[in-house]
TrEMBL record:
Transmembrane residue ranges: none
Originating species: Eutrema salsugineum
Name of protein: Fe2OG dioxygenase domain-containing protein
Domain Fe2OG dioxygenase positions: 196-296
Domain of life: Eukaryota
GO terms for MF: dioxygenase activity; L-ascorbic acid binding; metal ion binding
Requisite cofactors: Fe(2+); L-ascorbate
InterPro entries membership: DIOX_N, IPNS-like_FE2OG_OXY, IPNS-like_sf, Iron_ascorbate_oxido_reductase, Oxoglu/Fe-dep_dioxygenase_dom
Keyword annotations: Dioxygenase, Flavonoid biosynthesis, Iron, Metal-binding, Oxidoreductase, Vitamin C
Length: 336
């Protein structure tokens, strides 16, 4: 069965100024109604080049406890590499449909790797205004080049170089967060599977939408991952839920946006927040983002770290193998 891609729906919808019914969100989700319009609190920004290492650590820990999201600047990933990563991703989505479909997720696959559209079950049957590409970039043992675009030709080289830098940055942040819990620096890395943890690249492609007031690129969710490191293009769209309001996230060129995901929430026994976020779309411009999800391998059991559990801090979460946790969450099944 041929799947209709949002990129194609966008092309036809822009001619009619209307969108199919399944993309129109209920009033409790529509961005025109639910976005906060007053003074917006700024998502914390942390300069990782600051020579005051303790101040940097405090800022990362505080942002993770209070927001579950922060932006890092001077993070060590070369600006030119981010530009190239975005360029090869954009070029892939500009290819003819037949070429994109050559790396499509197989219809019966239990994995998420590949080019696709629908990701998870929606209880109201609604669809998100986004196409995507997933593929693992690290460790080499779990990379499947079958889902890496052959075009543009430099796609593989750029993504392999980016993987090295994003791994280094994520391990630095995990070290800070581990010490913020009063644990040894490798605690959270090991809790996610150590060197067996997997880095999953996703490219989100949100084409122009004639009714951005009614649709969402991605509905409200928290990330399945331990931690997510994301770079967007310059078209705004990320929104964060805090203090009962949806706030627009500021775009900072070359910054990396860091999301605390479900697995760090659970490993830290609730000390660090998993950020609830969503994506809006634009009427005239294509928004794109490149999140990398640091995830445990499927068999890894993740629950609160034993070192944190005391009489006054009992476990708040039930341990799950990551593959079971993912399946239950994506299919809206209970997690207690």
């Amino acid at each position: 069965m041929e799947i209709e891609r949002v990129q194609d729906i966008s092309s036809s919808s822009l001619l009619t100024e209307a969108i199919p019914l399944e993309f129109i969100r209920s009033e409790k989700e529509q961005p025109a109604i639910t976005t906060f319009r007053g003074p917006t609190p700024a998502i914390p920004v942390v300069d990782l080049s600051d020579s005051d290492v303790e101040s940097v650590a405090r800022a990362v820990v505080k942002a993770s406890e209070e927001w579950g999201i922060f932006q890092v600047v001077n993070h060590g990933i070369p600006t030119e590499l981010i530009r190239r990563l975005q360029e090869v991703g954009r070029k892939f989505f500009e290819l003819p449909s037949s070429e994109k479909e050559s790396v499509a997720k197989p219809e019966n696959s239990k994995d998420i790797e590949g080019y696709g559209t629908k990701l998870q079950k929606d209880l109201e049957g609604k669809k998100a205004w986004v196409d995507h590409l997933f593929h693992r970039i690290w460790p080499p043992s779990c990379v499947n080049y079958r889902f890496w675009p052959k075009n543009p030709p430099e796609y593989r080289e750029v993504n392999e170089e980016y993987a090295v830098h994003v791994k280094k940055l994520s391990e630095k942040l995990l070290g800070i967060l581990s010490e913020g819990l009063g644990l040894w620096r490798e605690a959270l890395k090991e809790g996610l599977g150590g060197d067996m943890a997997e880095y999953m690249m996703k490219i989100n492609y949100y084409p122009p939408c004639p009714r951005p007031d009614l649709a969402l690129g991605v509905p409200a969710h928290t990330d399945l991952s331990g931690i997510t490191l994301l770079v967007p293009n310059q078209v705004p769209g990320l929104q964060v839920f805090k203090d009962d309001h949806w706030f627009d996230a500021e775009y900072i060129p070359s910054a990396v946006i860091v999301h605390i995901g479900d697995q760090i929430l659970r490993l830290s026994n609730g000390r660090y927040k998993n950020v609830l976020h969503r994506t809006t779309v634009d009427k005239e411009k294509t928004r794109m983002s490149w999140p990398v999800f640091l995830e445990p391998h499927g068999e890894m059991i993740v629950g609160p770290l034993p070192e944190l559990i005391r009489d006054d801090n009992p476990p708040k979460f039930k341990p799950f193998a990551f593959k079971d946790y993912s399946y239950r969450k994506l299919n809206k099944l209970p997690l207690d």
